[in-house]
Every structure is written in C-alpha cells, then in structure tokens.
Amino acid sequence: MSSKPEQKETHQANGAVVPIVPVDCLTSPDRGQLVEPSDFLGPDGNGVEVVALESCANAKGVREEDALLENGSQSNESDDTSTDRGPEPASPLKETSFSIGLQVLFPFLLAGFGTVAAGMVLDIVQHWDVFKYVTEVFILVPALLGLKGNLEMTLASRLSTAANIGQMDTPKELWRMITGNMALIQVQATVVGFLASIAAVVFGWIPDGHFSIDHAVLLCASSVATAFIASLVLGMIMIGVIIGSRKMGINPDNVATPIAASLGDLITLALLSGISWGLYKELESKAYVNPLVCAFFIALLPIWIIIAKKNAATREVLYSGWEPVIIAMAISSVGGLILDRTVSDPNFAGMAVFTPVINGVGGNLVAVQASRISTYLHMSGMPRESSEITPRKCPSPCSTFFSSDVNSRSARVLFLLVVPGHLVFLYTISSMQGGHTTLTLIFIVFYMTAALLQVLILLYIADWMVHWMWGRDLDPDNFSIPYLTALGDLIGTGLLALSFHILWLIGDRDSDVGD
C-alpha cells in the first residue's frame, strides 16, 4: 500500500528476500507508532531478517544539534523532518545580529584594550637603547605580533571548529587535540621566529647597506625566544577559553580569536622588549649568550616535531601548513619596514602607539568572520562534499555586506563595531597621555577613515578567500587567518602612515603629530 514506508530489498544466498528499511522509516509519519511486525513477514508467514539503516538525514540532524551552541535561538522544528524530504545543507549559525554583537562585544573590547596596552608599551620602549641602535627590532614588531594570527588565532579557529563539530567531547579526544596542537604551534613559532629575524636583518640591510653580525644574532635570539614563550602561554590560554566557552554555552568562534589577541599583543611586545633589552646589555660582556639562546630553542624542535607527527589531527598541518604562516610573516615584515621607516622620523613618533591598535582591531574582527565562515562550511561537510555551497570566484560587495545570510549579517555587525570601538580606544590613549598626539577632529577623521577602510577591505577579502580555499580542498582554519591578519598589519600600518604624512603635509599643527 502507498501508506507503507518504501522498502528496499536485497537477496540472501538462499534466495530469501530481506527488506532494508531506514530506522526513521520504522515509525509512521506522525512518529506516533511503530510499523506493525506483520509488514515484514515472509511469504510463508515466517519472520525474515530486517536490516535497519540509520537515516542519513536523521543522523545529520543529530550532529547539527550537538554542534550548535545557540542558547535557545535554534529551532527544533528543523529536526522533525518528514521521511519524504531529502537532506538539506546544514545551517549552523542561526543567530540574530543582536546575539552576534552581544557575544562579540566583550571579547572585542577586551582585545582592543589589550592592543591599547601594547601600543602604550611600544610608545615607551621605542626610546630604549636597543630600539634606537638596533632599529631592525621595529621590523620584528608586526611579524611577532602577527604570530597571534599565524598561530594562536589559527589554533583558536581550528579548536573552535573541532569543538563545534563534536571532536572534543570526550576526555581522550580533548587531550589528543591539546597535545598535538600545542606541539605544532611550538614548531611553527620557533621556525617563524627564526625566519622573521632573517627578514628583519635583510629589510634592515637593504636601505642602509649596513650589516652587523652581533645585531643579527641578537635579533635571532630575541625573535625565537619571544615567539616560543608567547605561543606557549597564549596556546594554553586559548585551550582554556574554548573549553570554558563550550561549558558556558557560548559559540567559541565569537570569543576565542579576540581573546587570543587581547593578551597576545601585550604579552608578545612585552617579551620582545624585555628579552631584546636584556640580550642587548649582554652583547659587550657576554657575547656568547645570544648564540646559546638561539641554539637552545632550535634544539627543542625535534621533540615538538615528534609529538606533532604522532597526532593525526596535526600531522597534516605539520607538513602542509607552512606556506600561509611563512608568507604571512613576510607580509607582516613589510608592514614592519613601513613602521621602522616612519617611527624613525621624529615627526611621526606618535604613530607607534596607534599601530598595534589599528592592526589589532582589524585583525581581530576579520579573524572572527573567517572563523565563523569556516565553521559554517565545515557544518556542511568536508571540502567539495557539499554541492549546495559553491566557492564564489569574486563576490560582490552587496553579497558580502547586504545579503540575508548569517555571514553577511555578522559582517555588518563587525563593521559597525569599528567606529565606537576605536573611539573608546582613542579616548583611553588620550587619557593615559600616550602617543605624543592631541586628538583633534581632523586627526580623528583621518584615523577613522583609515580604520574603516582597513576593516571593509579585510571583511571583503575574507568572504572571497575562505570560500576560495574551501573550493580547493584547503582548510580555511589553517590557511585563511594568517593571510588575513598579515594583510591587516600591512594595510593598517600603510593607511596609518599615509594619514600621518597627510596630516603633516597639510600642517595640522594642532594635532601635534610629532613629539
């Protein structure tokens, strides 16, 4: 009869016909009662074996329900699909603009105040001897601060996705993810720190043609030690944040990456300043200290490599995840060269305090967006598994910012946070008398224009880049955020330097751009 659920049949070796019935088809459409056993009687009246297959749609619905952290905003109606409906693409982020903004606001402000603190530190330490006589340290600043994008934010995005899709639910899975990822970021931090020091030496040598072996070793020791210690501390913080978010029912994508940056800039810059200052003082009396520091951290590399290789979750990233972090480091180093050339001019000394702020805010916001889009795509399966979600070659600005889907909604919310957030941070800097700069109206206008343009460009690039990588079997969690935060450093530093130059050219003496 047509009212009975459709049954597939298979033949056993003895010729008996065995019906194969999906599990959710064992109930009537109203889910009220089970199908009668007589429906599965053989021709002679005897029972036959029934092979029950779990419905793909039902299993997928269960996985979605387990993965989503919506605190009541998710409707249960989507789970009650009828048997005649095919599986639909996942909709993992059914959040309103208010809920997105509410969850992002606190970590965004926390991260912003972290960048303000980092800016105040840079404003102070730029007058230290090590920054005066080894100016290449300025080139290290964006590259090492960018480690939060290369490593910590990538770690946060990777673990947030793993938590949302149920890969950290058991203690065994949780421990495996922690050990593998911590070992992985130590390998990456050591290598990227070493390469960043080489880039700083090269970029410092090209304009002036001056090279000092002592300064080169100092840069190497400072960079590697800073990268290793900062990544260790921030990695542990990230793991705690994501586990806590899961227990509190908060989407880790909304809070993990901003909190990674909240302490990231401050810790990294404080470590770089302190370590480079201490090693600089030892140059004359104990020149062997710098090479020993380099050798110590490099000697630990084999241990972290072995641990990361034993973990299936990090083995692939260990082999294939180098391209984004190295290219991102090079991009950030170009931003560092701009910072070095600009801050070295006494007319633009006030730029130092604002650079970590504008770069940090832009990087934080685009990292949240990239992490959310990546989780949305992962909910629909692995790359190229879902035919409903296709990569866009070049999305229009309207589809990025003005469509009705949840990613466009979050892009609007994040963009609207730029102006009020920066106003709070600028007021904080002014109250602490940092930056050698008076906040006049024309200065605020130029600064806000640079900040808005930076975030607008980054959110648009994120929409294109994450989908583009997804369509080419690249995990956006591992590949997109390093590029995006590095571009944020380069765009932010460039636009800020341009703003300071324009202010100086038009003679805005009231803003007191210099000392």
UniProtKB/TrEMBL annotation:
Subcellular location: Membrane
Parts of the chain that traverse the membrane: 104-124, 182-204, 216-243, 255-275, 287-307, 319-339, 411-429, 441-461, 481-506
GO molecular function per UniProt: inorganic cation transmembrane transporter activity; monoatomic cation transmembrane transporter activity
Keywords, sorted A to Z: Ion transport, Magnesium, Membrane, Transmembrane, Transmembrane helix, Transport
Organism expressing this protein natively: Chunga burmeisteri
UniProt membrane topology term: Multi-pass membrane protein
A Pfam family annotated for this UniProt entry: MgtE
Keyword Signal set for record: no
Role according to the record: Acts as a magnesium transporter.
Family label: Belongs to the SLC41A transporter family.
InterPro entries hit by this protein: SLC41_membr_dom, SLC41_membr_dom_sf, SLC41A1-3
Positions of the SLC41A/MgtE integral membrane domain: 141-275, 355-498
Region (Disordered): 64-94
Protein name: Solute carrier family 41 member
